[in-house]
């Protein structure tokens, strides 16, 4: 049975595409069959895939509100489908929430960014209420600044939403942008680098989260 992981946040630049592409690749390196569904009309994941010389993870574009239905037809032969969300909370995000098993919300550790998630969290919770807590959802901190702990203010702001926050996060590192520019992931460039360790740790946490 394939699992659908949607990476959503209506805020632009939250780190959706970075997390979606790196996680997808990490799952693939782990031996899983993975497909990225680019639900963003900007087509960033498709651009990423096109920039790559050797194809890393297959990407298809499904940026219509019939997303949930369209996904059913491609679902069967994949272990994971990773949806890269669009920076809006419109039909597309609602469709992604309806068809996903897990929603990851990348969020930068700033109060403005956290407050901007309110509408998305409301939609997810409304869905969870009618479907027995499904899909599961969690925040993943992105672009954390090195050597600063998640401050109490940030932790408190996130707590108000009453959704889990992954222990693992991405830090602010140039390699995330550099690798994306050439259609790669941080796993590809300098194996064993610190960013790769972050992604593998998030992937492992996701695999546990999907299970329980
Ligand atoms: N951990 C990180 N360290 C450094 N740069 C990062 C990190 N995560 C993302 N970025 C950079 O931040 C920018 C925004 O990231 P990304 O495109 O993943 O966000 P997004 O949520 O998909 O944006 P959009 O809403 O436009 O789709 C990109 O230039 C990306 O390379
Ligand atoms: Mg994006």
Could you characterize the architecture of this molecule?
The chain is built from 9 helices and 6 strands; from the N terminus they run E-H-E-H-E-H-E-H-E-H-H-E-H-H-H. It is α/β, with parallel strands linked by helices and 212 residues long. The protein has a single domain, classed as 3-Layer(aba) Sandwich (Rossmann fold). Strands 3-2-4-1-5-6 form a 6-stranded parallel beta sheet, sandwiched between helices. Helix 2 links the parallel strand 2 and strand 3 (58-61). Helix 1 packs across helix 9 and helix 4 packs across helix 6. The longest helix is centred in the C-terminal third of the chain and has 18 residues, at 194-211. The radius of gyration is 16 Å and the shape is globular. The model has no long low-confidence stretch (mean pLDDT 92). It binds adenosine-5'-triphosphate and magnesium ion.
Task: Output the keywords.
single chain; 212 residues; alpha/beta; Rossmann fold; six-stranded parallel β-sheet; 9 helices; binds adenosine-5'-triphosphate; binds magnesium ion
Number of helices: 9
Which class best fits the helix and strand makeup? alpha/beta
Architecture per CATH nomenclature, i.e. the level-2 architecture: 3-Layer(aba) Sandwich
C-alpha-based Rg, rounded = 16 Å
CATH topology: Rossmann fold
